[in-house]
Design brief:
alpha/beta, Rossmann fold, 2 domains, seven-stranded mixed beta sheet, five-stranded antiparallel beta sheet, 9 helices, 16 strands, elongated, disordered N terminus
Length: 332
């Protein structure tokens, strides 16, 4: 099976790590701000981060007056040579008794202020390398030690862990948050790759046609392979961060691909097609003895109903549905 070349997009935090490492390497005092906990309508979610120097920054912890105040605070610390890490609580309510952020959007955040010592440069470079490998590593920082990168092969582990208190510890998986496999490399696949490349997905596109130009020239996918659809199952990983969209050239190949993946344990399994096509496909699966529990996990027809017509509009409708699934707790 051919692995075709691609020009992948970068994980969300790559610019932050690059800015921090380059600044530190140049001897410029630098700090990292990271949201270690968030709840309610906080503007910056857990894991949001930014790199700050006296004259520059990269990334964001939510914007607004809160971000401005904390950026100026950490810049003052750097000027004073204060490299003590601190976690600050920010409450986004006008009448909060303490820790008011200046914002009134409700919710609250805890934000790590981490001035970066020169000896942290090795761990920043390790973060950059780990991000390029799309997973398998975790970034850890704690009250009793500087940041470090450790191996992480547990695919079931949570993306982020935060232990509050005096001996606080924060850790997060490095690389893309979730993995998307698109089965089918046509025009809608190209448009969906483009849309989801901005949303922190590691994107794989599989097609059974070795010379399909929309597959060969897709610059947004991180991995592209030519795979017979009746050999699809081993090519698609399982797990709570796996999303799969089937959009092959026609009904028959959709059916072959779906049968291969029907019992895969993934967060999202969707099939592109009209209501008539999907009804016929599900009828065939029922007639073949497929149990209703497996059929109930299929999202089909996929996409939110926004009367989309073009490949780009269809991609947006599918991306919106995937975002809704990703941001909905699995217990709901």
């Amino acid at each position: 099976m051919d692995d075709l070349s691609a020009t992948p997009s970068r994980p969300r935090d790559m610019l932050v790590w690059k800015h921090a490492a380059a600044s530190l390497r140049a001897g410029i005092p630098t700090a990292l701000l990271c949201v270690v906990r968030s709840e309610g309508s906080s503007p910056g979610r857990q894991g949001s981060k930014m790199s700050v120097t006296a004259t520059g920054l990269a990334g964001s912890i939510g914007g607004g007056i809160m971000e401005h105040k904390l950026v100026e605070l950490v810049r003052a610390r750097l000027r004073e040579g204060d490299y003590t890490p601190e976690i600050r609580r920010q409450v986004h309510r006008a009448h909060a008794r303490s820790d008011r952020s200046g914002m009134i959007c409700s919710g609250e955040q805890e934000i790590l202020l981490l001035p970066l010592r020169s000896e942290y440069l090795a761990s920043l470079e390790a973060c950059k390398r780990a991000l390029r490998q799309s997973g398998g590593f975790r970034w850890v920082v704690a009250a009793d030690g500087g940041p470090r990168v450790v191996a992480d092969t547990d695919v079931t582990a949570p993306l982020i862990r935060f232990q509050p208190g005096e001996n606080w510890q924060y850790e997060e998986k490095l690389g893309f948050r979730d993995q998307l496999t698109i089965v089918g490399g046509g025009h809608v696949s190209l448009a969906l790759s483009r849309t989801l490349s901005t949303l922190d997905f590691d994107i794989t596109v599989l097609d059974d046609r070795p010379a399909l130009h929309t597959h060969l020239l897709n610059p947004y996918a991180h991995h592209k392979r030519t795979v017979p659809y009746d050999k699809l199952a081993p090519e698609v990983l399982e797990g709570p961060h796996q999303y799969v969209v089937i959009m092959t050239v026609g009904y028959r190949t959709d059916a072959v691909a779906l049968r291969q993946l029907l019992h895969h344990q993934v967060r999202y399994l969707g099939v592109l097609g009209s209501s008539n096509k999907i009804t016929h496909l599900l009828q065939e699966l029922r007639a073949a003895g497929t149990d209703e529990a497996a059929l109930s996990r299929i999202h089909a027809p996929i996409g939110l109903p926004i009367h989309s017509r073009t490949p780009e509009e269809i991609a947006i409708s599918i991306a919106a549905e995937i975002i809704r699934v990703r941001n909905t707790p699995e217990s709901e």
